[in-house]
Each structure stands twice: as structure tokens, then as C-alpha cells.
Write a structure and sequence with these properties.
The structure is a homotrimer of 159-residue chains. Chain A is an alpha/beta fold and 159 residues long. Chain A is built from six helices and five strands. The first copy, chain A, has a single domain, classed as DsrEFH-like (Hypothetical Protein Ychn, Chain: A), CATH 3.40.1260.10. Chain A has a five-stranded parallel sheet with strand order 4-3-2-1-5. The radius of gyration of chain A is 15 Å and the shape is globular. At the A-B interface, helix 2, helix 5, helix 6 and strand 5 of A face helix 1, helix 3 and strand 5 of B.
């Protein structure tokens, strides 16, 4: 059935390894014909921000504190190895050395494979973000209810 | 189909941001007519404890160590910002400032929207908790198998 | 319907508590007749390694850094209590004291209940692991796409 070929992921984490998992699953599924919907929320919004170096969080002191923590893809920590600091680099190095796609390449592949990118309305409100803060591939800003409706009939993961 | 309007969440984490995600998804889904089942287990049991300030974990030294870590909703750390300590407060402040429901409000909304609360039997055994330790909205104590049966035919998330 | 009796878990985390959740869900579901498929990836590969004390990660300096972090089941940290170091022990003690199966017992039960173990091809590439590094119960090495196909029509969780 058509509805069995749909994968929806709520991308909540901003950790490098978890974002890698999100995009590995997304591209792996899209490559074999799945409809893939990614719903970026909270820390996961990192992955779809424009200008990865700059803090996209709204103006003011408190949003800035979050901004420092949300420095974009290249800065995203590995969940378990955060203390070492070097670990995203090691991860990246191992991926490169073993001919596995890096996170940036996986994001590019996801775009080319027509993976659907959505941003979470509520998290954007909390963090003071606008649609203009995200890459143009972000198709729409959705409420939780809209995303759930979109993902009906398929497999849905929270990462 | 009826079975496409069901959302079940295994609420495992006690982190403030993840619990916010649990209740945002739950209320968002319930508001548009979904049957929503929340299965609180391990650290997630924090969210349904009575008297948030008091340790609900059973008697004895070792359960107390866990009790300190499980101080209830107001004490729940944000998963990525735990080191700063201040971050749940910042989060709460941003939610308030931007007119987004706080976690406590989301829990209240979930109750009013008839979201079903269940507690995990096995985690209660490990942590020495009784049904009486939880808010009265907790409908039942369930085994893993019973919860899986309950969530069949819908979307199930682990958070 | 047959397809409603299938539980598939992407076991990504190497944390003691999350692995406990994986195997509790797996055995709970298998015990009531579910087909259960576990897909071990990244840190989750810990759970299926042979010789838990030894680093299974490939040769060279950088894989060794990962190897130290991936010391197998007995060394797996509890996600929230990692700083204390003692917590997996406390957890284990509480499980023992309250007659709840420990993680090792849950893994054994999963094998006996014919839970299907699969290893993630891509994570093995990154970490330089071979099928021979895993316990013989590992049925196959699968791509993401193959695992998604396998899990179609059932409930799928990411832990």
C-alpha cells in the first residue's frame, strides 16, 4: 500500500550524531521511493538555519544564550562525546576516511532526493525565529497537528 | 480510518525540553481529535508525580539517590543545557514572553483534552513507586505489552 | 491484522537506561506474539558486541577514542546520571533488589524469544566494525532502506 511508503521524522535533537541519524534515515528511505517528511523542532532547527556560523535566534539577551548553544550544523555536539569537544571532528574524520557521507553531504542528498523539510511553528515562537531564518528548501511552517496529519499512515520517529 | 487518529507516546525522558515536546505533541494531537495515550516510564514518571517537590521514590538510601535526580517537573533539566542550571528558567521565561504555553499549562491542557495517562509497571517496580504516588489522572498502571496493544494501529513515539 | 503485531526498534543509544528500555519493549512485545526487529546502530552497537570488555572498534588511533567510549554493556552509562559514575550499579542493584530483570537477562530473554537482531551497515562502516565483531544472534547486516522495508506495517521506534 502507498501509505506504507512514508517516513516522517520529528527532528528534535541538535546533536551531531542524532542529526546524522535523521539524514541517514531520510536519504536511505527517499532513495528507495519513500515519501519523507522532516519536522524540525527545538534544537533540531539548527539543521535548517541559514548561515550556520551566525546565531539565528531573535534579538535580546536571553535568546542569545540559546543562540550560543545553537551554532548550526558544524558546531553541533555529539550527544555522548560532548565533553571531549573534538568528537564531532573525529566523527567527521571517520566518516570521510571510510567513505561515508558527512552530515553536510547527507543534507544535500536529502534536498536532491526531494525530502520535505518543515519547521515547527511553536518552537519558532519560543526561540523567536522566522521562516526567513531557514534555508529555502524549508517547504512550510507547520503546527504539530498539521505535521501529524501529514505523517498519518506511515512510520513516524522522534529523534 | 479510525486507527489513523491515534498517537501514543512512550515518555521516557525527564528532561524539561523533552517533556515539553511530549505534551506539545499530545495536546496538539488531542485538540484535532486524536486519541492520545501517554505511557510514562523511567525518568518520565517525574511528570505525573504528586507533590513535585518531594521525592516519591521508595524508602532506603539507594532509591533516595534516584529521588534527588527525580525532583519533579519544576526541577527537570533541559537535556542540552543542563550545565548552565539556569536554562529551564530561561526556557520558561521565553515560553512566557512569547505567549507559548509552559510545561505546567501543557500538562493541564492534556488533562482537559482527555489525553490518557498511563504509568509503566516495570519502571515503578525498579523505582519503588506506587500508583498512589501519581496524580489521579493516571488512568492505569500497564505492562509494556498492554501499552503496545493499546497503541496498535496508530503512530507511536519514544521520547 | 498481522501487520499490527510487529515492533521495530532503531537502537541508537548506548546508554544503560535506554538499552534497558529497548530490551524491555522487545521482550515485552515478543512475549505476547509480536515479531520484533532490533536495528542496532551507532552507540547501540555496544549491545551486540562480542567480548564486552574489549574495544571492537577498528585499528588506529581515532577508532580507539571511540572504542574507549564504547566499552560494551557493562560499561554503558545511564543517560542522566552519567556524572555520578556509580549509577549503572545503583540501577542494576535496584533491578536486582526488586526482582526486575537486569539488562543482561533482558538480552538473553530477547534471544530466547526469537527477537531479530540486525546491525546497521553504515554505522559499521564509520566505526570500522565487521559482522564477526558481533554476537552470533545478529541475523544480518542491513542498510537503512532494508530495515525500513522490514519494519513496514508495524510500529517503529527510535531509541
Amino acid at each position: 500500500m502507498a501509505n506504507e511508503k512514508k517516513l516522517s521524522i520529528i527532528a528534535f535533537s541538535g546533536d551531531f550524531d542524532k542529526l546524522t541519524a535523521v539524514f541517514t534515515l531520510a536519504t536511505g528511505a527517499a532513495a528507495v521511493g519513500y515519501e519523507v517528511n522532516l519536522f524540525f523542532t527545538f534544537w533540531g532547527l539548527d539543521a535548517i538555519k541559514i548561515k550556520q556560523g551566525r546565531s539565528p535566534v531573535g534579538k535580546g539577551f536571553l535568546p542569545k544564550v540559546f543562540g550560543v548553544m545553537m551554532g548550526g550544523l558544524k558546531a553541533s555536539p555529539v550527544s555522548r562525546l560532548n565533553f571531549f569537544g573534538v568528537s564531532p571532528k573525529i566523527f567527521r574524520y571517520l566518516m570521510r576516511k571510510n567513505n561515508v557521507a558527512t552530515l553536510e553531504e547527507l543534507v544535500d542528498a536529502a534536498k536532491q532526493l526531494k525530502v520535505n523539510f518543515y519547521a515547527c511553528e511553536m518552537a519558532m515562537h519560543i526561540l523567536g525565529l522566522q521562516k526567513a531564518d531557514f534555508i529555502p528548501e524549508v517547504k512550510d511552517v507547520l503546527s504539530v497537528a498539521s505535521f501529524l496529519r501529514l505523517s498519518e499512515g506511515g512510520q513516524t520517529l522522534f529523534i
